[in-house]
Amino acid sequence: MTDVQTQPPAAPEVAGPPKGRPFAWPLGLAGAVLVIFGSCLSWSYDGSILNDLSIDLYPGGLQILAIIVAVVALVLLVADKGKLGWWLDTTAGLRALGSGLALFMVLTLAAISVESDGLINVNPGGYISLVGALLLAVAAWLMPLRHGLRDMSKAKSPAWAEILAIALLMAALLFTAAYALGLDDAWLFILCLVFIATVAVALFRVGAMSWISHAGQRHRKVLTLASFAVAFLFPFTQDGSDANMSIATSVLVFAATAMGLNIVVGLAGLLDLGYIAFLGSGAYVAATLSESAFATIGWKPPFLVVVLVGACVAALLGLVIGSPTLRVSGDYLAIVTLGFGEIFRFAMFNLDGNNGPNLTNGPNGIPGIPDLVLFGWDFGATRHPFGFEITRFSNYYFLLLILTGGVILVFSRLNSSRIGRGWVAIREDEKAAEAMGVNVFGLKLLAFAVGAFLAGLAGTIKAHQDGAVSPDQYIFLESAFLLAAIVLGGMGTIAGVLLGATILKLLPEKLRFFSEYRLLLFGITLVLMMRFRPEGLVASRRRQLEFHEEDEQLADEVEHQLVEEAK
Fold first, then answer.
1. Backbone Cα Rg of the chain
2. DSSP string, 457-468
3. Please, what is the end-to-end C-alpha distance for the chain in angstroms?
4. What tens digit of pLDDT does each residue of 360-407 get?
5. Which of 365, 389, 27 minimizes the C-alpha distance to 242?
6. Is 406 helix (H, G, I), strand (E, B) or coil?
7. Is the C or the N end of the chain the one with fewer CB within 10 Å?
């Protein structure tokens, strides 16, 4: 038997860039230049579609997006030949840009063909840009990967540069959100999403987002302030659009509710399929105590009192459902909570004065809920500060933004506390947590109560924003979408839940022509996420460490097996 000596892997060569096919770099350069040249020419014969792409030397919106991607590709190609290429994974970024740009051009030509009845209406500029995008994609895939010769996140940068990068990123997010929501054409919106996804994936692959992420950790207060500044300025970019602001307020209600569910599912690991009932309980409390002519309770307290009452009623329901059912777990808990959600909905149907006391007006619900008036501020009035039109939905948007900020603060504080660590311990291994002295039942009950309390807060505002409540608003599908927002965005994270809630609320509203297949797309998306990124779009650090440890363990097992076979 011979001894097998394992040697550490050799360090990467730093004498020069990895060698690849010599024609790949100039091919990529030619492709990027062709995209820019073609985008300056006419793409479509019909100027009435896709915001007019028919004028030479006057790029339209989609042409400008293609030029932006091509310019970024040129920057990466130049960086690949310089010292900056040792910090940036330029080839990975170029592959993302080339593939995304090729998809963008194919879909654009398909949109022109569909909207104007045939490819005959595609002008030469469109074909030139398509050829350039394909050349860029082929060249990028022929170039060798660098495999991260240096860690971009460890690059030392001045504090002002990091703060400036955070500010520019937030400004880009504000501009992109305003531009995307302003697109009424479904094809334009889809192509804008492809552009956003292409640039985002390229930034992640190249390592730039890793550097920005670490810069955000070093300047957390600046990042938080910039995020809320962007969210606050968003209504001023919508030019008084009630449709877009209605979507934005729905996203905030959905996000605040999902953040409460994130405590139950993401931190404590309790599968709740009836969580929408807690949002409904808060909404019904606000409706019955409102000034509506259909309200069934004569007591009309101030709204701040109504908020507390609605949240406490929701928390009480959380305790009621949690106390007898949290002795079970897994699938059984999911079935019980699903039953609770349906019980709530049918109870709202039956509290109509015939089958029970008249509290909810049964299936008719409580319409005519008046707008809020807080400290003399009428949320139903339209105002024009500094020449900007602030409508009813914008007023509610600001209120919901404050609520969402408070919910995020509660979640982050709990996540960092001993209670949060206890929830995570229960999620990972309930028996081990109990053996270490964690009060498993008490912490589970607390998770249900706190999550329900936060949902009740959002429900009280939602009732006044919608102007009516009815049992049909709180069906099981809404609970499923809340859970999907957490799974899609990333369980146990703040940014992930906000991103997931935005995606699941925004896309159905902007893609109504695809409404018949919405659930099909929804299911396919979740399956793909579970296959390729089970930790979600924004993975928590804890879960990243878990997957990293699993990969290391698997690598150690493979190495050990190879050594044994060699012996």
1. 27
2. HHHHHHHHHHS-
3. 6
4. 888 889 999 999 988 888 898 888 888 888 889 999 999 999 999 999
5. 389
6. helix
7. N
Strand partners, 377: 374
Residue 564 identity: E
Please tell me the distance from the alpha carbon of residue 278 to that of residue 257, in angstroms, as a whole number.
9
Structure tokens given for 65: 């997006």
Question: Which residues on neighbouring strands pair with residue 374, listed in sequence order?
Answer: 377
CA 411 remoteness from chain centre: 17
- One-letter amino acid at 30 equals A
Centre a 10 Å sphere on the Cβ of residue 441 and count the other Cβ atoms it contains: 14
- DSSP H or E stretch at residue 328: none
pTM of the complete model: 0.83
In the block, which residue shows the tokens 């810069």? 215
Whether residue 235 contacts residue 390, with contact meaning beta carbons closer than 8 Å, is answered with yes
User: Which parts of the chain register pLDDT below 70?
Assistant: 1-21, 83-86, 146-156, 514-515, 541-567
Model pLDDT, residue 282: 94
Q: Residue 462 burial by CB count (10 A; 0-12/13-18/19+): exposed, middle or buried?
A: buried
Q: Residue 280: which of 230, 347, 208, 197 has the closest Cα?
A: 347
Q: For residue 503, what are its two tokens?
A: 């995606």
For 373, the enclosing helix (H) or strand (E) is strand 373-374
Q: How many CB atoms are closer than 10 A to CB 87?
A: 21
| DSSP designation for 221 | H
Closest to 506 in 3D by CA, of 165, 199, 155, 254: 254
- Location of structure tokens 């908020």: 307
Residues 6+ apart with CB under 8 A from 556: none
